[in-house]
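Aim 2 progress update. The chain analyzed this quarter is reproduced below.
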Amino acid sequence: MFQQVANVSLAHEKAKIGNREVVGWGINGKYSYIDHLCFPMPAIRWRETTPEIQELRNKEKGDWKKLSVEEKKALYRASYCQTFAEMQAPTGQWKSILGVTLGMLALSWWVYIWEKLYVYPPMPDTITNMEKKQAVLRRMIDSRVDPIDGLASKWDYENNRWKK
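Predicted structure tokens:
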């Protein structure tokens, strides 16, 4: 039973890859191609086998000195999509990340402004009126609020001014 399921699964995967040659295990044993630095040997070749590529592969079995540089490159590109240098090259993705981040910051700033104008009530008189703020401060000093290391510790009660 298990063998039949495995054969059906294998046949299904073979149908998906066309006539590309299976050359290894790959990442997880599936017939898939991926360019990744951690898995340098994909399970299947990049391109399907054509008569030109098959001719080059037969020529490859002989002396490599007889192959031209273009033929070696064609063989490499038939097996792999990217070189290691191309895989490690910068993609410029940081630009889109920075753009989205700055866009979200701008949006959140505009939401804050909108909330400040239309959602929150106006600030109380005790915060906006300077005379009332000074009266609250004077009351805190007279009440000796936090005399050890707070507000009252910075007030000189004998000279009636802030300590220097």
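The chain has a mean pLDDT of 89. The beta strands are 155-156, 161-162. These observations will guide the mutagenesis experiments scheduled for the next reporting period.
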